[in-house]
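Database export, one record per block. Field names are fixed; values are copied verbatim from the stored entry.
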Amino acid sequence: MAVLKTMFDSAEFKNSLGTRFKDPIHFVVSAIRLAYDDRPIVNAMPMQGWLNRMAEPLYGRQTPDGYGLAEAAWVSPGQMVTRFEIARMIGSGSAPLFRSATTVEPSAPLAPRIADNPSLASLRPPLSAETRQALNEATSPQDWNTLFLASPEFMRR
């Protein structure tokens, strides 16, 4: 316990927070967890499709070394456009994550309230002035969610 306390209290540990770019799995899972908290996912197919589009399919790596974690592997223009589209789907509640494959009746999407999530207070690094301005100009909760999930601060862990 003393070793972990020393590690977590160190300046090196604190300075490392928010500096690494999220690979696709971290981006998708952290966005879903922030938006929908503990709500159980009924249909994981959209998540699998998003990971496939971002070139990190589940169990798709042919070699045992795993997917790259370096920022350069995940910041291409196409990758970022895909992330913005995913942020819009999660933020607007339009992804069918909570409908089973056998559900035939359409259900109205329920947009999450990310701005009300208490875990935002602990976000590291804090939001930049540009991000705060963009969030203040959002015209709906769905727009706010999308802008936040597509923000440079959310792209880092």
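Remark 1: Helices lie at 2-9, 11-16, 24-36, 45-53, 77-92, 129-136, 141-149.
Remark 2: The chain has a mean pLDDT of 85.
End of record.
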